[in-house]
Amino acid sequence: MKKDASARKDSFPSAPIEKKKPQKRPMKSVRPDVKNQRIVLSQKGNKYYVQPEKGKVLLDAALKQSQDVDYKCRKGTCGKCAVTVESGKDWLMPPSEREQSRLKEQVNKGVRLACQAVTR
Ligand code: FES
User: Fold this and answer.
1) Atom of ligand 1 nearest to the CA of 71
2) Is 23 in contact with 67 (CB distance < 8 Å)?
3) Which segments show compositional bias classed as Basic and acidic residues (predicted)?
4) Looking at residue 107, which CATH number applies to its domain?
5) Is the confidence at residue 46, as pLDDT, over 90?
6) What does the alpha-carbon distance between residue 8 and residue 53 come to, in Å, rounded to a whole number?
7) What is the mean pLDDT of the chain?
8) Closest ligand 1 atom number to CA of residue 102
9) Considering its fold, how many domains does the chain have in total?
């Protein structure tokens, strides 16, 4: 038995079809709450602007963001990656023992080792 088209149409409730708007997703690599935040660094007369990337060392975040911070060993021994944090120090974890022993008094003046300083 075949039903005609009008009979089928009447058998379903006529509820309006809701279209869902696509929701904006935050960028994967940068947390939404830090999107407009940045760490300002200086090294040998150059300034660098880095967005914090939770758990990454400052050097890796800087290089990923095309900030050409100078470095050599990446182990915290040579000191070539030393940078002065001009603003945004709250986005960095406290200096590690390795940083403190390598930089000594400079740590108190805002100098950090970019290869060792971890962003929050
Ligand atoms: S690159 Fe050598 S101490 Fe950071």
Assistant:
1) 1
2) no
3) 1-11
4) 3.10.20
5) yes
6) 57
7) 85
8) 3
9) 1
Q: Which helix (H) or strand (E) holds 97?
A: helix 97-103
Does residue 11 register a pLDDT over 90? no
How many Å apart are CA 70 and CA 31, to the nearest integer? 26
What mean pLDDT comes out for the span 108-119?
97
Q: How far is the CA of 8 from the centre of ligand 1 (A)?
A: 74
Q: Does residue 118 line the site of ligand 1, with CB under 6 A?
A: no
Give tens-digit pLDDT for 85-105.
999 999 999 999 999 999 999
Residue 16 lies in a domain: no
Closest CA to 65 of 52, 50, 55: 50
pLDDT in the model for residue 6: 52
Asked whether residue 104 is assigned to any structural domain, the reply reads yes
The per-residue pLDDT for 29 is 53
Half-sphere exposure of 117 (CA within 13 A, CB side): 31
Interacting residues of 26 by C-beta distance below 8 A, sequence separation 6+: 32, 35
